[in-house]
Amino acid sequence: MSTMATRYMASTNLQVGARCEINGSWGVIRFIGVTGFSSGKWVGVELDEPNGKNDGSVMGKRYFECREKHGVFVRPS
């Protein structure tokens, strides 16, 4: 995540449906919360382009719906 995006996300309230930028790719926040794949809070983003790692599911658990390679999970900070 870029420094600018990190500062913006840390200084605002994250909301499902909000647009965001992650490492130069734009998308929409689709999930905010805890997951089964790692501890702590995560943000699931549906990217506009196929630059992601998943389809909104990880290790067989669905967190949100999107096309293959359009989903990514990032830490909120």
How is this structure best described in words?
With 77 residues, the chain is mostly beta strands. It has one domain: SH3 type barrels, CATH 2.30.30.190. Helices cover 12% and strands 38% of the residues. The chain has one helix and six strands. It has a four-stranded antiparallel β-sheet, with no helix packed on it. A two-stranded antiparallel sheet has the order 4-5. Strand 2 (25-34) and strand 3 (41-47) form a beta hairpin. The longest helix is centred in the first third of the chain and has 9 residues, at 3-11. The chain is globular. Its main location: cytoplasm. Keywords: Cytoplasm. It is found in: Cytoplasm. InterPro entries: CAP-Gly_dom_sf (IPR036859), CAP-Gly_domain (IPR000938). It comes from Paraglomus brasilianum.
Major pleated sheet: 4 strands, antiparallel
Question: Beta-strand percentage?
Answer: 35-45%
The count of DSSP E runs of length 2 or more, i.e. the number of strands, is: 6
Estimated radius of gyration: 11 Å
CATH C-level: Mainly Beta
Derived from helix and strand composition plus strand pairing, the structural class reads: mainly beta
Question: Can you tell me the number of structural domains?
Answer: 1
What is the residue-averaged pLDDT? 89
Q: Tell me the CATH architecture.
A: Roll
Number of helices: 1
Query: Unreliable runs, pLDDT <50, ≥5 residues?
Result: 1-9
Q: What is the ordering of alpha helices and beta strands? A: HEEEEEE
The CATH superfamily is identified as CAP Gly-rich-like domain
CATH third-tier fold name: SH3 type barrels
